[in-house]
Amino acid sequence: MIKNIRKVIPDNKLDxxxxxxxxxxxxxxxxxxxxxxxxxxxxxxxxxxVKRMVSKFVLxxxxxxxxxxxxxxxxxxxxxxxxxxxxxKFFTLKELIKYLKQLK
Length: 104
Fold this sequence. Notes:
33% of the residues lie in helices and 24% in strands. It has helices at 2-7, 47-63, 93-103; strands at 14-16, 25-29, 32-39, 68-73, 89-91. A hairpin with an 8-residue loop joins strand 1 and strand 2 (25-29). The radius of gyration is 13 Å and the shape is globular. The two termini are 20 Å apart.
């Protein structure tokens, strides 16, 4: 999935994370810094699973001083979690590509 994401982002706007950043991709867009984490679920995630995952990546967002945190999943996360909605966006790959293209 990461290869597909890289295809739609110009190289000069994409900063690949290394092992100490704890995230899959960092996009340095002129208007904002976006962290992208890719998740491949074998089963549809439930609310406790998502909350645990988000809490980990919200800390990474703060540490890396990012403006946005996006979690891309092969299975849609279609439930609302009011206490994390401001901290993260959930996209499928198709939704992410559409979102990134409109940033250009």
